[in-house]
C-alpha cells in the first residue's frame, strides 16, 4: 500500500503500450499532476504539445489481459486559478441549418473563454468574454480523458475513446468514484489527464473549463474478471460507458454491458435484470463532440441484490 | 377559468386534425382519463384497440398556427391497481450480437410483467414473473404520449414522435410540469394518453409500467410565440425535446431549440448562451424504442437572467 | 385491361386513405400527368400548393391489406421544357464544419438553377446560373415520390418516405421498372408525382431537375403476397428499398427485405441466400435529404434460381 | 523507375509508423504478395496471426506530411485456388428483430464457405456449403485493406478505416485504379493486404472471397497537394472515400471531399460544382461491417472541365 508521488516529465497524446513511467502494486496510491488539454501546467507553462496530453502510463503489477483494472479517484483538484474554454457550440451538436448562426469568430481568429477558478470558494468565474450579469458556476472537477493501453497493438488518440476508455468527458468521473477498465496489455498501462474544473453534459462546446490538476488515485486488479467497456460506481449507482458513433450505438454498448454485469456478476436472471432495467435504468450523455461519442448507463445500487 | 370534466368515448391512434371532442378556453382546466397503451380502462375493460390510444383532441380557443400551446400537468394518477410491462430489452437497444441472448419467450408466446400499483403506498410491486428478492419500485406517474395535431395535414402514429410531441416517453413529463407545444392547426388540438406508473429512461424494454390514469391539466395560449420543438419547465429547469433518429439528430434538435430559447427569449447573446450551455447543459434520454428517439436538453433555471 | 386517361384536378401533399379519384382494375393502365414539386403544371401554371403534390389516389379493385400492389412504370416523360433545381448541397450531406462554406445566397434570397429540357434531344441544359463551359446532361426521367396509403390511419407527408413508399428519390424508378408496394388500405390507394428530368444519387442538392410529366402506368394485385418495404425489378435486377434514418437503418431494412425475398419467395435456404448476398449484393443511395433516407439493395437476376 | 520484387517476412495488424521494410522512389513499382485475412499465404500456410495482416510498410522517398501519396494498382491476382468466406449476414446489417432468424451455426461452431478460385476461368465456385443449383461467380479481385500510417502517432487496427485508408472493402479498388492517400508521416509508409477474389458491396457477410494475392503497384508523390480522405480514379470516374459511422457521416466526409476536389483543384465555382453534383453524383457503399463504415462518392470524368 505504497503512496507514490510522481512528477511527469513526458506526456502521451495516444493511449498505447508505451514503456511505463512507474510500476505500482495493487493497493498502491499515486499522487501526480495533469496538464491541461493544451499541455499547460500549474504554472501556465507549456510542458508538452496540445491534444489532451496524458500523464503515465503506470504499470500495475499483476494486471494481465482478461483482468480488470480498478482505479479509485481519490482526489482531483485544479492546481491553478486559470481555466479556459470555448464560446461556441460545436457544429456537430446543432442542426445543420443552424451552423451558420453560431457565433463564429472573425476569419483567422480563435475565441476562448477565460475563467477564474477558485478552489477554496468552489467557483469558476467567467472573466472574458464579459456577459451580462456575469457568470459564476460551482466547480465539479473531473477527468475528461483517462484509460488504459488498447487492445491489438493499437495506439488511440486521446481525442477519442473506445473500450480502453479515453476521452469520454463524462461529468461523473469525479473524486470518490471507482472506475473499472478492461486490461488489454500486461500491467494495464494506465494514463490520465484532461482535467476540467467543471463541464456541461456532452462537452457540447468542445471543452470544459480546461485546467491542470493535482490528482490522487489508488489502483487494484481483479484477476479473471473480464469486462468489455469501462464501468464505474459511486455511492449511489453502478454505471457502464459505451463509446461509439452514433450515440445509438454507444447506448447499445453501455446497455449491453450493464445487462451482462447484472446477469453475470450479480446473479440476476435475464428476465429479472431486464425487467428491472426497463423500469429503473438511467442514462447520462458523455462526450458528443469527438469522433466517438459516450453514453453512460446507470442503475441505482438500491435495486441490486443484497450481497 | 372553467373546470371541465370530460369522459372520453372514442380514442385516436394518430395525432391528427380530427373534430374536437371539447372546446376549451385559455386558462381552463380539464379533468379526464386515459386508457393504457393497449386501450384498457380503469375497470380493465378494453375501451378501444391498442396502440397508445389518445383522449382528445381538445380545441383550445384562440390557438392559431404560429402560436404556442401551454399545457400544465396538474395531476397524473393511476386509476387502477393493475400495471403491465415487458420482461425483455428491446432488440434495438443492445448490441446486435447480443440480440440472441435476450430472454425471448418460446415461439408464439408473449411474456408480460404484471405489477400491483398502490397509489397510497406509492409503490409498483412486480407480481409476475417472480424474481429473487422481489421487486418494489416507487411510483413516478408520467404521460408517455401527448401532443398536438401535426403540421401539413399529417396524421402521425402515436407509436412515434415529432415536432408535435407524441410518444416521447420522457420521465420528466410528470405532474407539476408545464409543457409547450408549437401550434400547427387552429385550436392546437391537444391529445393525451399512454400513462406510466413509472418507467426507466429510454423506455428500453418498450414499455413503462403501463396503466390507465386520471389526468388533470390546464391550458393556455401564447400568441405569436413560435417554437419548433416541444419545450417544458419544472421548478428547477427549463428543457427542450428533440424527436428523431439517430439520437444524435434528436440531440441536435433539442440543443438548437435550447440555444434559440436562450438567445431569442431570454435576451442572451449567442456567446453568452453557448458559453453557458457548454458548461452547464444537461441531457436526459427519452424514448429510444420507437421509430423516432427523444433527447431532452435541460438547463437549470438559476443560470437564467433574472427577469 | 382498360386504358384510363385521367386529368387530375386536385392533389395531395400527404399519402393518406383519401377518397379515390378513380377506380381501376388489375391489369388496367392509367395515362395521367404530374405537376412539379412546387405544384406547377405543363403550362407552368401553379395548379396546387408546393410540397411534392401527388396525383391520385387510384383505387385498385381487389387490393386488400396484406396483398401487394404491382405498379409497372410504362412511361415517364417531361411535358414541358422548363426544369428547375438547387445550386447548393444540402447542409446535412456535408461535414458540419463545411456548412459555412456552401454557396449560400444573400440573406432573404433563394437561388435556383434553371434548365432547358429537350425530350427529343434527351438533354437537360443548364440555362442559369451560367457556369464555365456550360452544363448539358442526358435526361433520365424518374418519379421522385410515389406510393400507397400508409398503415394505421396515418397521413404521411410527401416530403418523406416509409414502408408505404413516398419521397424515395431513387434514380432507378424509371420507365420499364416494376414496383411492388405493401397494401395497407382497401384499394391500396396509389399516388404519384415529383417527376425529375434527371437527378444525381441521393438528391443531395435537395432537388433533381424538377419538372411536370406525362406518366403512364399499369397496375396489378398479388393476393396474399405480404411484403414489408417497397420492392422492384428491372431487366437485370431485383431490388428492395428501405426508408429510415440513419442510412444504416435504411440499409438494414432493405437488406432484411432482400433476404426475406430470396428465402421466402425464391426458395433459397438462408445459408444459400446469405452466402450469395455476401458476394453479390449491390446498393444504391436514394434520398439522403429528407427526414427519412432511402437505401436500395440490389441483386442481379442472373444469380436467382431458374424458375 | 525501379521495379522491386519484395517478399514479406513479417506483417502488421495495425497501420502505424513502423520501420519500413523497403524504401522506394517516386515512379517505382513493387511486385509483392499479400496473405489472406487470416494470415494464410499462397501455399495455405499460416504465415502470421489473423486480422487482415498487412504487407509493408513501404517508405516512399520524398513523401512528407501534407503531400499526397499516389498508388496505382497495376495488378491484383489471387495466387492460390482456395478462397473462403462467411455464410451468414452480419447482425449489424439486418433489422434487430431479424438477428435471431439468421442461419447461426450450432453453439461453439463456426461456419465458413469454401470457394474454388480459378484465375484462368475467372470464376469463384462455391464448393461448400453445397447449395441448390450451385453458385459460380465471376472474379473481381480487389484489395480490402490498404493505406498509410495515420496521423498523430496513432496505430489503427486493420479491422477498421479512417483518413489513412485501411479496411474500406470497396469493390472499386481493383487493378487499373489510381488511389490517393493523404501523407501523415515521412515516407507515407504504405501498407496493403486483405485481398478478395470478389465481394458484394458492403462486405455484408463480413468477408469477401478471402484469398492471398500477387500484387503489383506503382507509387508517386504529389508534393504540397493536401487531401483529407482517400481519393481515387479509374477510366471513367473520380471518387472519394469517407470512413466513419454512421453511414450518414461517411457520406458527409466523402461528399465534402468531392466538393473540395472540384472547387479547389478543378477550378469550378462552388455553385458550378454543387449544381453538377446535385444532378450527377453517384455513391457506392464500401464496408458496412467494421467499426467505421465506408461510403464512396463518385463523379463521371466526362462532366469535369477539360484540362
Q: Briefly, what is this?
A:
By secondary structure, chain A is mainly β. The first copy, chain A, has helices at residues 247-265, 270-280, and strands at residues 3-5, 14-15, 22-24, 29-34, 54-60, 68-78, 82-86, 112-118, 123-128, 136-138, 142-148, 156-157, 161-162, 165-167, 178-182, 190-196, 213-222, 231-233, 237-244, 282-285, 293-300. In chain A, the strands form four sheets. The first copy, chain A, has a nine-stranded mixed beta sheet with strand order 1-4-17-6-15-18-19-21-20. Chain A has a six-stranded mixed beta sheet with strand order 3-5-16-11-14-13, with no helix packed on it.
Keywords, separated by commas or semicolons:
homotetramer, 307 residues, mainly beta, Jelly Rolls, Endonuclease I-creI, 2 domains, nine-stranded mixed sheet, six-stranded mixed sheet, 36% strand
Amino acid at each position: 500500500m505504497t503512496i507514490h508521488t510522481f512528477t511527469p516529465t513526458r506526456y502521451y497524446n495516444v493511449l498505447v503500450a508505451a514503456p511505463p513511467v512507474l510500476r505500482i502494486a495493487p493497493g498502491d496510491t499515486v499522487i501526480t499532476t495533469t496538464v491541461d488539454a493544451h499541455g499547460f501546467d500549474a504554472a501556465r507553462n507549456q510542458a508538452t504539445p496540445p491534444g489532451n496530453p496524458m500523464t503515465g502510463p503506470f504499470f500495475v503489477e499483476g494486471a494481465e489481459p482478461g483482468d480488470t483494472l480498478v482505479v479509485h479517484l481519490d482526489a482531483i483538484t485544479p492546481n491553478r486559478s486559470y481555466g479556459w474554454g470555448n464560446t461556441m457550440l460545436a457544429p456537430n451538436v446543432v442542426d445543420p441549418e443552424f451552423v451558420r448562426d453560431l457565433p463564429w469568430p472573425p476569419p483567422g481568429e480563435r475565441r476562448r473563454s477565460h475563467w477564474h477558478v477558485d478552489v477554496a470558494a468552489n467557483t469558476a468565474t467567467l472573466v472574458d468574454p464579459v456577459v451580462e450579469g456575469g457568470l459564476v458556476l460551482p466547480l465539479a472537477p473531473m477527468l475528461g480523458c483517462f484509460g488504459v493501453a488498447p487492445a491489438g497493438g493499437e495506439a488511440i488518440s486521446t481525442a477519442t475513446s473506445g473500450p480502453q476508455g479515453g476521452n469520454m468527458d463524462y461529468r461523473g468521473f469525479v473524486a470518490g468514484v471507482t472506475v473499472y477498465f478492461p486490461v488489454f496489455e500486461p500491467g494495464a498501462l494506465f494514463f490520465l489527464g484532461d482535467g476540467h474544473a467543471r463541464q456541461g453534459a456532452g462537452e457540447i462546446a468542445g471543452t470544459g473549463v480546461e485546467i491542470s490538476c493535482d490528482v490522487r488515485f489508488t489502483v487494484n486488479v481483479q484477476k479473471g474478471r473480464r469486462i468489455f467497456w469501462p464501468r464505474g460506481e459511486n455511492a449511489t449507482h453502478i454505471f457502464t460507458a459505451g463509446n461509439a458513433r452514433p450515440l445509438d450505438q454507444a447506448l447499445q454498448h453501455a446497455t449491453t454491458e450493464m445487462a451482462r454485469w447484472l446477469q453475470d456478476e450479480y446473479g440476476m436472471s435475464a428476465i429479472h435484470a431486464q425487467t428491472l432495467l426497463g423500469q429503473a435504468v438511467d442514462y447520462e450523455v458523455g462526450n458528443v463532440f469527438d469522433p466517438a461519442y459516450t453514453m453512460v448507463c446507470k442503475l441505482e445500487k438500491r435495486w441490486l441484490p443484497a450481497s
